Amino acid sequence: MEEIAAHSHMASKKLLIANRGEVAIRIARATAALGWESVVVFSEDDADSKHRLCGDYSIPLKGSGSHSYLDGDQLIRIAKETHCSFLHPGYGFLSENAEFAERCLAEGLQFVGPSPQVVKILGDKLEAIRLAEQNSIPVLAGTRGPTTIGQAKNFFVQHGALMIKALSGGGGRGIRRIRNLEQLEEDFLRCSSEANAAFGNGDLYVEQFLPRARHIEVQIVGDVHGEIAHLWERDCTLQRRNQKLIEVSPAPNLSSEIRDQILNSALQLARSVQYSSLGTFEFLLDEETKGRFYFIEANPRLQVEHTVTEQVTGIDILQMQLRIAEGQSLKNLGIWPDAIAPPAGFAVQLRINAETFDQTGNPQPSTGKLSVFESATGPGIRVDTSAYSGYVMNPNFDSLLAKLIVRTKSSHISDALALAYRALSDFNIQGVKTNKTFLQNLLLLPEVENYSVYTGMIDEISGSGRFEDSKIHKEFSFSSDKNDSSSKAVEINEAPLGTLQVPSSISGRLTEICVAVGEVIRKGQKIAIISAMKMEHVINAEVSGLVEMIPVSIGSVIASGQSLLYVRPSDVTGSALENRDEIDFDSIRPDLQNLLNRLSLNEDSSRSQAVAKRHKRGQRTVRENIADLCDPGTFVEYGALAIAAQRRRRSLDELIKLSPADGLVTGLASVNGSLFDRHKSRCAVLAYDYTVFMGTQGAMNHKKTDRLLQVVKELRLPLVFFTEGGGGRPGEVDMPAVAGLDLHTFRQYASLKGIAPRIAITSGRCFAGNAALFGSSDITIATQGSNIGMGGPVMVKGGGLGNFSAEDIGPVDIQTKNGVVDILVKDEVEAVQIAKKALSYFQGNIINFSCSDQRALRIAIPENRLRSYDIRSLIEILADADSFLELRQQFALGMVTGFIRIEGRALGLIANDPTHLAGAIDAEGADKAIDFIKLCNSFNIPILFLCDTPGFMVGPEVEKRGLVRKAGRLFEESAACKVPIFTVVLRKGYGLGAMAMAGGSFHAPVFTISWPSGEFGAMGIEGEIRTGFQKELAEITDWNERQKLFDRLVNEAYERGKAMNMASYLEIDAVIDPADSRKWILRGLDSIPKVL
Questions:
Q1: Per residue in 997-1023, pLDDT tens?
Q2: For residue 862, how many C-alpha atoms fall within 13 Å in the half-sphere facing its CB?
């Protein structure tokens, strides 16, 4: 293999390898070849992994399992402490985490991989698909955002079989093929759970399934100077359950025309994002059409199967990647994009895993100790592994044992596959079950030998007997099991005649024998205890009878299936289970009783003094509010045992009494379950407890908030937040901090914007950090008498701004007029009811509804075009009864925003109020509309505009409010709006203001219709006449005659701008009977496709 290890005169560099196993060893070897130093890391349960010996320095990680390798803070700290200047993530773990890559760069570490921006784009599968669409590269039909079960079902109805895929990550997790509608819902939920566990994101999307497709991927390499090249392609078609098993380079039986098209598409995509480092762009090739291919995803990292590319090109791409990271160009490394020699022959990689297959064909990891591990050797054979004889398989990590790579220069793929089969036969792996035989069976299939394969082939023929382990294969090593047969014979010979073996069901150390020779035992009786995986496992008898022999002793290591007892079977009345005493399910064990006692201290019944004080103020307790909000019996509490971080200054008993739940009750529940199904009624709840340190935010309190916000983000849960409290809490002496400005609560809460609807409620005082969360919410509700401000009286005084009482700061009558408070209510009882109503619009449609006689709309607009009317009364008639919920009523009086329902369907509503500035749009009104459009757009709620405006407000005073910028932003937000909009012109539709009430153009909405009272013009009629006929009017010296001309011109313009004339020019879609307005809205809603 060509070495890129020149430049040895350069100063030694140091690299942290943020991975484990065979890939860590591979990176360490490339690092050493360049003369660099390497630092390897290992978790507490990974100390026996061979990779820890392969670096120049070996540093232990705190923690066990994969979580320790995902601990970015710890990895960066180790890299800095060991003076590393580079960090290589390998594959998996943090390799596609854009935030981690950004943090590395911020800490002065060179992340060996693409730029964080590229990782962010290509690590998101849908963003990558959008990139392909922008570059006119074919993609499969599919949803283009986080997808619901309902949307997936609709897609299946339209397109047939589909693939469910995780939005993030890879490796075959969170992916299922759906061939019939009945299996969709169960598999969808399973994929979401699997993706959430693997990648921290349970979002899914679906795409069209190609029944006979090949999986082709292109290896891309780019440098930081803008040069990009391909290193040919790989074929990854042979998969089981979407897990790659065998990879080949180059792709066999691929025409040069298709190969060139796929390679060029990959290069085009890479160039469009200025790709640097290693990366893979993946495509499906439709075998049925023999030529159509589709981009499916990109992997901005090193791939497991990079080995076959190395073997056929002769390039050490790990060394190349490191050189690119230090700034070398491709040309300096001998890579000329237009002159890379085509590969000669084939390379094949097989993944040898420690696994078995269950009855459904799903792989199951196998554990145990590798008593023998001998890998294949010989010309054309390469093995990448971290396994060795004596290694105990760790179930906390991937089951990959070894990658077997073979290379032949033959032009026939069958020759490479034959070498792979022989190399597999040369492997000697004992002590742990593997998929070796399965791979051997696979290589002997005629379809594989001539490489007429497709991605679903293995799954389709599983169970046909063609993969049975009973096939006899060549083996080039002795089995230690044969050599141990004598010991097995001795065991059998020593067993008393006529007895039955009672075997162990688990491997481990025998810590207790619970029976004795000569004792009569019953089936199901406890006979022994074995310690394994830090747990004690009870072994029960499988037969009844007399114990005649115990061939094992306490402290010995027992293998699964090894004899523990020899029993002479006999009829013993009953079983061990049948002879147990009657179980009392009402009995409470001491450990449970301790928990129940502790939890009871958090309840209102244990805090009578705090409850009485709360009630005296006319307020409810936090738990009373939550009980009123949530459906009965559905609330489960997170972090109930938390207490204030003040153990160094107070006793534990005192803290339990003073700070139950650390002043914050959090959990999950169902809200509005009587209206919606279990999925739609999901909700998260957070509530500061003002009776605990005045609802202030303590250290544990913040930790609880962050934990629940993480759950909210991952599960996309609606959120109701009771925010009453005084902000940050001083005196948290247990936490080592100076200012605590590194906490994530406020950023994390703000990042939920557009992901989960957030409804905030406050009653009483809400200051500082509590107010910041209140203000960051999508809908804010406050009770009469509340005070809301970014600093309380103490902060104001400390800032030298004077002495004020809490009541002087941010009173609710001010905060409603300036738009901070969306909805003002009487008390917490009404606040909770309004919160449930507000939440319902995000939860979906309801079944039961009623409405007013719609003929009343015919007289809602006065015949006198100059007379105002009550827009809210009109809305109440139009909408379902009691469905109108207005937001920010006292702010921006000329613009009405809120939610309504039409036959139970939820809509956002934006209307002009003609009683304020005649409906003209001022700066505050534009702001109000912008915020509401964003809210509806974020949560897929269609918007209904009721237009009655003479246009944007004009004049010197309004321009002082920044109207120009805000009017422009209103058009921008309307243009960016993805939800359907509908516009009904009630009366005036003039100029830019009217266009803004229709998404920027009368032809932007699904429909723009008018009532007969509608009148239109490029600007207000009177202004148009005074401007357009200024000369003619000025020439008439008689005032009465001038007025007559003016009136005549106004009337002519009015007639010209009437709705029916406007419709005749097709500038609007229709003029309708006002009583038909709901009919039009419903038809528009029904016309919206289910999958957007």
A1: 999 999 999 999 999 999 999 777 777
A2: 9
Residue 60 lies in a domain: yes
- Do both 630 and 730 map to the same domain? yes
Q: Is the pLDDT of residue 485 over 50?
A: no
Q: Which of 484, 127, 114, 437 is nearest to 276 (CA)?
A: 114
Residues 793 and 664 grouped into a single domain = yes
CA dihedral for 530, 532, 534, 540, sign (positive or negative)? negative
- In the predicted structure, residue 1081 carries a pLDDT above the cut 60: yes
pLDDT digits (tens, 9 = 90+) for 713-728: 999 999 999 999 999 8
Q: For residue 75, what is the domain's CATH number?
A: 3.40.50.20
pLDDT per residue over 903-933, tens digit each?
Answer: 999 999 999 999 999 999 999 999 999 999 9
**The two structure tokens encoding residue 891:** 């702010």
Residue-level pLDDT at 583: 63
CATH number, domain with residue 187? 3.30.1490.20
Give the Cα separation of 359 and 542 in Å (integer). 24
What radius of gyration, in Å, describes the C-alpha atoms of the chain?
Answer: 36
Residue 768 lies in a domain: yes
The arithmetic mean of pLDDT across residues 810-835, rounded, is 97
- Asked if residue 228 lies in contact with residue 220, where contact means CB atoms within 8 angstroms, the answer is yes
Phi, psi of 155 (to 5 degrees): -65, -40
pLDDT category at 339 given cuts 50, 70, 90 is: low
Whether residue 1024 is found in the same domain as residue 934: no
What is the extent of the structural domain holding 79? Answer: 14-112
Residue 581 included in any domain:
no
Q: Do residue 544 and residue 620 come from a single domain?
A: no
Round to whole Å and give the CA distance between 299 and 18: 18
Phi-psi region of 327 (alpha: psi -120 to 50; beta: other; left: phi over 0): left
* Residue 965 sits in the same domain as residue 863: yes
Exposure b/e, 710-742, CB count within 10 A at least 16 = b? eebbbebbbbbbbbbbbbbbeebeeeeeeeeee
Query: pLDDT tens-digit profile of 95-107?
Result: 999 999 999 999 9
Other Cβ atoms less than 10 A from the Cβ of 484: the count is 11
Average pLDDT over residues 828-856: 97
Residues 253-295: tens digit of each pLDDT: 999 999 999 999 999 999 999 999 999 999 999 988 777 999 9
pLDDT > 80? residue 508: no
Q: What is the pLDDT of residue 9?
A: 37
**197 class by beta-carbon count within 10 Å (0-12 exposed, 13-18 middle, 19+ buried):** exposed
Structure tokens at 124: 């998101």
Read off the CATH number of the domain in which 542 is found. 2.40.50.100
Which CATH number fits the domain that encloses residue 901? Answer: 3.90.226.10
Q: Which three-class secondary structure string do you get for 294-339?
A: EEEEEECCCCCCHHHHHHHHCECHHHHHHHHHCCCCCCCCCCCCCC
Of 287, 311, 343, which residue sits at a domain end? 343
Closest Cα to residue 131, out of 120, 1092, 228? Answer: 120
Domain count, the chain: 8
Residues 256 and 280 placed together within one structural domain of the fold: yes
Query: 3-state DSSP call for residue 558?
Result: strand
Tell whether 471 and 525 lie within a shared domain: no
Better pLDDT: 234 or 185? 234
Answer whether 340's CB lies under 8 Å from 232's CB.
Answer: yes
Choose one of 149, 181, 209: the last residue of a domain.
209
Place of tokens 């964080």: 116
Q: Which residues, 6 or more positions from 681, have their beta carbon under 8 angstroms from its beta carbon? A: 631, 670, 671, 672, 673, 675, 843
Say yes or no: 810 and 876 in one domain: no
Label residues 1-24 b or e (16+ Cβ within 10 Å = b): eeebbeeeeeeebbbbbbbbbbbb
Q: In the predicted model, what is the mean pLDDT of residues 441-451?
A: 93
- The reported pLDDT for the residue numbered 358 is 57
Spatial distance between the Cα atoms of 439 and 292, rounded to a whole number of angstroms: 30
**Is 2 contained in some domain?**
no
